[in-house]
């Protein structure tokens, strides 16, 4: 076994023991011997991410994909670090590369959708989320974000449809019922909105947003209907 492999194996053992900073030293030793070792760069980036050292993680992931341009996992983790750093335009490119290298990397496409969403590119976000749902219907959080994106586009009928579908899979989601209520209200259906807010509060009695909306709508209904 070569010295690089010895350092890599030691790093893996230290990671299993939760000794992250000691593992960093071993990966750095491996890179001193083999600076182009993409796996070591990616592994080092993953540790930095766990330590919330985002700039350092980004640097290591970039080194990993520089030395191995076909490293889908490194592009994905680069995208995550960039996303957490608020660099959405850059995270878009990283997630695109991950999905291009591995078309079955659906979680990368999901994060691509989130990046588009926070850039305000809502139609592209919806497209990404729907592609994920076509291949991985169990990733129901993607449907939740489709609903959120439609709501931002003022497409309340579509938003209601998506939240109804989401709640079939996650019936105990107070956030799902809160958003369903908001969109029913925005499309003018006060009774359905009240029902959704009530259900949200049943699930989560501390849901102040739903309580406030419910109080307002019940007052409106008492006064005007």
Can you characterise this structure?
- The protein is an all-alpha fold and 225 residues long.
- The protein has a domain at 137-225: Serine Threonine Protein Phosphatase 5, Tetratricopeptide repeat, CATH 1.25.40.
- It is 80% helix and 0% strand.
- The protein contains 13 helices and no strands.
- The chain has helices at residues 3-16, 20-33, 38-50, 54-67, 72-84, 88-101, 106-119, 122-135, 140-152, 156-169, 174-186, 190-203, 208-224.
- Helix 12 packs antiparallel against helix 13.
- The termini are far apart.
- The model has no long low-confidence stretch (mean pLDDT 96).
- InterPro entries: TPR-like_helical_dom_sf (IPR011990), TPR_rpt (IPR019734), Ycf3/AcsC/BcsC/TPR_MFPF (IPR051685).
- TPR repeats lie at residues 4-37, 38-71, 72-105, 106-139, 140-173, 174-207.
- Keywords: Repeat, TPR repeat.
- Pfam families: TPR_1, TPR_11, TPR_6.
């Amino acid at each position: 076994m070569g010295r690089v492999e010895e350092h890599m194996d030691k790093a893996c053992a230290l990671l299993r023991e939760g000794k992250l900073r000691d593992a960093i030293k071993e990966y750095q030793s491996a890179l001193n011997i083999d600076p182009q070792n993409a796996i070591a760069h990616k592994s080092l980036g993953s540790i930095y991410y766990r330590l919330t050292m985002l700039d350092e993680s980004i640097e290591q992931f970039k080194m990993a994909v520089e030395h191995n341009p076909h490293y889908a996992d490194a592009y994905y983790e680069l995208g995550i670090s960039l996303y957490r750093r608020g660099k959405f335009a850059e995270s878009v490119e990283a997630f695109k590369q991950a999905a291009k290298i591995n078309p079955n990397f659906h979680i990368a496409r999901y994060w691509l959708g989130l990046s588009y969403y926070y850039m305000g590119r809502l139609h592209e976000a919806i497209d990404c989320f729907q592609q994920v749902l076509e291949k991985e219907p169990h990733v129901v959080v993607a449907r939740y974000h489709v609903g959120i994106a439609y709501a931002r586009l003022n497409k309340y009928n579509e938003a209601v449809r998506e939240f109804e579908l989401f709640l079939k899979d996650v019936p105990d989601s107070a956030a799902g019922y809160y958003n369903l209520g908001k969109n029913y209200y925005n499309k003018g259906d006060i009774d359905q909105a009240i029902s959704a807010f009530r259900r949200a509060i049943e699930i989560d009695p501390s849901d102040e947003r739903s309580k406030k909306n419910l109080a307002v709508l019940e007052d409106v209904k008492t006064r005007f209907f």
